[in-house]
Prior knowledge:
Layout: H1 3-27, H2 33-42, H3 58-67, H4 71-74, H5 78-82, H6 84-94, H7 100-103, E1 105-109, H8 127-131, H9 149-153, E2 159-162, E3 167-170, H10 180-184, E4 190-194, E5 199-201, H11 226-230, E6 236-239, E7 244-247, H12 257-261, E8 267-269, H13 280-293
Antiparallel strand pairs: 1-4, 2-3, 5-8, 6-7
Helix pairs in contact: 2-3
Amino acid sequence: MGTGLIIIILSSIGIICGILIFLVNRFLPEEPDSLRKAEEIEKYLPGANCGACGYPGCFAYAQALAQDKDIFLKSPCTTVLQDPDLLEGLESVLGIEIDSSAMKKKAVVRCSGDSEIIGDYSGIETCRAASKMAGGFKECPYGCLGLGDCVEVCPVNAISIDEEKQAAVIDMEKCTGCGLCVEECPMNVIELIPADSKVVYLCKYEPIKNIPGRKKCKSGCLHCKKCFKACEYDAIKWNEDKAIPEFDHNKCTLCGECIKACPTGTLLEMSKIGLKLKDDVKVEEEKEENLEKV
């Protein structure tokens, strides 16, 4: 094959490809505006694809936001709420103002982990599996089982297991309030509360759900209403249906009176969650003393 023929063939191929490219650009539809918008929004998302927002990934979430920016207010990306730079960029591209302080949440384990073990469990080492066996292996049927299902799903490694109490503990500084642990917990002892909450109620036991042969632990709520009566700021409401206190963090002044009044230590300052008490003996003595007064 001559050199001239090769040049003609290559030139023809180049011309044909050029024509095809021209036709594609001329007649194929342009990239939808929503897709371009989604790509712009995705730049200000963390890229973790954790699914905590309710969508399968960050780009899917970005596509939803491109269609309806108010979705962020209903189902916010908790990582963005923690990152001022991402938040500022997202506000700019969406054209909205976001009050992150009002939207931030933290996960809390409503269990102190003091429940006694009533049976040896030798099955699959997950809370979900253990919970299927008569509601778990602890005396309290509503307590944390401490086998770490929540630990596995936490995207920021904010959860650990207190081996002594065999219960989950959440690091409030690391927690972003994504809620993945809430969905994963088969005992429903993890809940999201406002990040600026001051007092946390550490009990999930409800007397209306008493189970014969099972009972609350020594740190469980006695439903004595002492915390409710001690609050002078109307920050505690008593839920008569569940017989538990409910807190209004906006009214709470963190005076500490409700914490002092609680005979079982069921109430704790949120800032102290996850911190090891240095004098456990003294704490136990105070609990016993308070119980005698009830």
